[in-house]
Request: fold
Amino acid sequence: MSEPTRRPVLFSGIQPSGSIHLGNYMSAMRSFLRLESDYDCLFSIVDLHALTVRQEPATLRRNSLELAALYIAAGLNPERSIIYCQSHVPQHAELAWILNCFTYMGELSRMTQFKDKARQHKDNINAGLFTYPVLMAADILLYQTDVVPVGADQKQHLEIARDIALRFNAIHPGTFKVPEPDIQEETAKIQSLSDPMKKMSKSDQEDSFVAVLDSPDVIARKFRRAVTDSETEIRYDPENKPGVSNLLTILSVLGGEDMESLVSRLAGHGYGELKQEAAEVTIETFKPIQQRFRELISDKDYMAKTLQNNAERARTLAGRTLRRVYKKLGLYQP
Reply:
């Protein structure tokens, strides 16, 4: 009797810091639902990564739980995928130390995110901020990951994870799977509503992003204030009309209407109508997610048991890789 075919493994990690916004939903969560049917998926709430900047403990705990609930509310199945907190699986930190010994100072110092974060947090340039990519590599390599969904701005972190895996494998052959990126080009860049030349980010001012849990009134207000331009023509032209093009992208993707027919339908209409339609389709998209989220977050027993069970599943998988690494390195295991 032949063994069942191994499904490829997909890993994704999101920090529990602040609100999950429309850009996260369109570029990540939305695609996760499709990917879940093709991969063995691990969705990690990377709370250890969040510690590179100072966190308020109660807020971090709440954000971690809410992010887990939001994953499930968006449609992910915690019986099929593994949705868990990074800190519940100690093998992440254990493997990170080992990979530190296979990572060079020079390659870490060249990381763009370290340079950016160091400028933003000049009073807290800690070692964790510097070695952040090594923990990220451990997150990925721990599960023999085949595919990592990444935004264009995250490719550098995946590249260093690949470099570390290849370096380790060159010394200890066959230890790690070398992961590949999965970039969803069509929704990879949802721009800020207040500055459409910048990617939407939860670290910017509140009116620049739409949070998945924003109320309908707040969503409508944010779209009304969205920056467009001094012209009146609705056309898709990201270089010359970034604000209008951003709204068209949101409306096209969430509404399921191809860009050409959307632009044709809105020809001769004003920006106000474009903003209103974008707001309405966003509100309708988020409505069932918000309702399910409220049900989940109020069921504390269910969420606790789900996260405990999923962490146990993750620890089982992670333990296999870590035991292999220990054996390859010659660490004595009784």
The domain at 9-188+299-329 is CATH 3.40.50.620 (Rossmann fold). The chain is about 55% helix and 5% strand.
